[in-house]
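We now fix the convention by which a protein and its fold are recorded. These numbers are not coordinates but entries in a learned vocabulary of local backbone shapes. A record is reproduced here so that you can trace the correspondence yourselves:
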Amino acid sequence: MDNNNFDRNQSPDPFYSYNHSSQENDRQENEQTQPKVQGQGAGSANDTESGENRVYGTAGGGYPQNLYQQNTYGQNGYQQNIYGQNAYQQNGMYGGPVQDEKKKKPKRDKKPGGFGVKLAKCAALALVFGLVSGTAFEGVRLISRQVSGEPEKTLEGSDSVLNQPDAEGKVKTTPVSSTYAAADVSDIVEATMPSIVAITNVSETEYRSFWGGRPQTYESSSAGSGIIVSQDDRYLYIVTNNHVVEGATSLTVAFNDNATVSAEIKGTDPSTDLAVIRVSLDSIQEETKDKIKAAALGNSDNLRVGEASIAVGNALGYGQSVTTGCISAIGREVSVSDYDSNTSYTAEMIQTDAAINPGNSGGALLNAVGEVIGINSVKYSGNSVEGIGYAIPITTAMPIIEDLITKEKVDESDSAFLGIAGVDVTSDVSNTYNMPSGIYVAQVTEGSAAEKAGIRKGDIVTKFDGKEVSTMDELSTRLQYYKAGTTVDVTIVRASDGEYVEHTISVELGKKI
């Protein structure tokens, strides 16, 4: 296309002149009101002399608007198909009028402050609201308690050696959170840790050489935990598991301030895996006495499945540590066989998923307010088992602990004698031969208390004075606390017509000749 105008409708020049004149007038008006832009037609050229960007068809030297505008052909049939823009655009039009670029909106000046400032204001308002509401709530609670005269909840007092009020010269009891649960367990642990001790058991283990000969012994040590439960004028009493102190030649107790003292066994009950050891108060330094406390004992009968639980103890002998979980089950019947001490027993225990590892035995299982609800005892182990540990309910343990603390061993010259020789019926033997666990009476001493009471060979002793017994060692230990002439009930199981029938026999204990 050249610089000559070309009319597709072959219209006369006057028409073009009129049209061109109109376009020129429009162009001049647009130049006065709009900024110069690069055209959409043939392209743009940079005028280096004037420094202006020119558009062909808008500023001399090119086609007017680089297109024939408003020159229509076929007024009666065609829809203003216009040459222009070097392309078919706009519903069949050849181009169209040069479109003005959209005007850019001016950028808004940012005001000082912004989202960050607003966020900070919101946080400050929320903090103020929380402080005010919290203060008001606590104030109302305190005022209501004063008006109603409701006292703070504490452990109920009793004559029990385990729940004595604080007195001069005695260790204090750990505090209990009775009105609210602590925000995290660190509050509970901090309050309870002074009542938990680490126990080291040094014992002699016998072994036989591969080449035979006489049995040899070597010294070994094991670790466990304990809970301070009581104190009298001479001793501090600590409850733990029987298997923690079994066979000990020496016992060492470490308090929460790492001070160590020697301890001795006060009493044991293998049938419940409980034991009490005691520490002479004279062996404890005064500054350690100020730091240790007796544990606050709770009521395990009120437990509910799902409650929070905290296990504290000397895990793996590394020192006191804490694990948390919940009460998984209550009243879980568990049969335990301790091959080291050759004892077995069955008891109802608390199941928890708080980790109970070796060394935790004898430690405390706490509730959400810091009370001892159980004594950690055993862990169910296996490749397919995860998170099953057991604790002796504190309500079950308390009467036994009190007996172990208050009962004193009788002088050997006055000690009682039953008069039987027996064989332990372990759980394995019981399952194999379908017979009750206990002590199988292999022999009855002639003229003994057992013979006089009617105990026979073949009977199985299951209880002594109302408490289960499973081994001869356990029965011998129990007899150390009874004087000759004392009358007790002995429960036996006797075979009759292919069945085992239980009998309770009253026995007046004799004296060993």
Remarks:
- Residues 1-25, 29-102, 150-158 have pLDDT under 50 and may be disordered.
- The first strand starts at residue 44 and ends at 47.
- The two ends are 143 Å apart (CA to CA).
